[in-house]
Amino acid sequence: METAQKIYPILNDLLDEKFITDKQHEYLSPHYAPINPRYFYLLPKIHKKQSAWPTPLCPPGRPIVADVDTESSRICAYIDFYLKPLSILHPSYIKDTYDFVKKIRNKPVPHDSLLITADVESLYTNMKLDLILKSIYETFLEHPDPYRPDIHLLELLKLTLYYNDFHFDNQFFLQICGIAMGRRYAPSSANIYLKKFDDLATHTPLINPLLYFRFLDDIFGVWPGTVAQLKEYEAHLNTLIPGIKVTFSYNNYTIEFLDTFIYKHTHKNGLTTLQTKVHFKPTDTHQLLHRSSFHPRHTFNSVIKSQFIRFKRISSTYSQYSFTSSILIHSLIARGYNKTLLRQQKLKIWREYKEPPTSRKEQQKYTEIIPIITHFDRHNLRLNQKWASIIRENPIFQKQQKNPISPLRIISAYKKHKNLRNILTKNQFQDPDTPEHLLDTLIILMELTAPPPTD
Q: What are 168's strand-pairing partners?
């Protein structure tokens, strides 16, 4: 309650200065009735080697402070709305596995270089609160925006960082160091927090990596020096930012990063390049959707297709794609899938699947869509199809459909009729005495008792 009271003046200032609307003010304001306390729990890291466990029967845990429906959960989402676009601007940023593969595959590297990975130890819990605010303030200065309420965002950020209290074992605690994994803006803040670290790590007085990429607290690079020089580089990095410690792993030919194996391949002309293949973690038991479960047929087809597409996008060669696909096929056969269908889908994906567009111009080809939306019933089904055909035959739309840069797609879409189940299964019930609720109920009851429609 005390934290909620501190939020209101800042929101009022945002409203007065026209940064938010009345409706947004109402949404962001903490309402005292449904406020929940944050609570602490651990996610066990069962993939860690048992030798690294704190006790023989207890694996290490990832600390989480759940921030669902608390006094500041919506405030954190509001802060993240502004931080997220700024957190991806640094050159070492990796969006996901596919982005990483595109950035490193076929990159030429020295034959005797080392492939290195590093993990930032306990990043979230070791981030200093004052340095978090300072790094975000400096990012605001570096990327000014007149429509962004910088001062108010920093006030809200400071409030949510220094008042991060949580409940555990019937007691309340206050987090005085680090950022809670559970706060909506935690990943964006961590990315911004380590931006300075990335700059210093790639511009040292020592030998610098030839390639350097980071996905949150995981780092990948190519090291042109010796192992002794890498150790010296590691020691230097551990002095850059208080609390930030990294530990390097290295290999001459292959190394694991995210869900990929990166390896060096020497071509006939003597050029050495980086290539990738799929990496299955030890805890991956391929427990995909069982074929006997009660789902539509297209759901099972989607499971198969998505896995083969993932394998193709990561694998540099067909032999690697085929090897990982055989592991998947063996697992899916045991879960009731048809062996012939799996093999057909495997070959089809390799031959026909194409990478999604990456440039803005290519992406525009898939963004121009006009949906024809009606309710889903016999009458609206025919109406929707007729309506869509009339639009497609219109000369204005026909010209746009043939546009090579951004062609237009006209699709049919449907929505459900409102029914009694929608009222009975709502998360929050309306006041039964309000006229709107009574009217909705009356309309539904009339529809349920009405005679069936005729053609």
A: 171
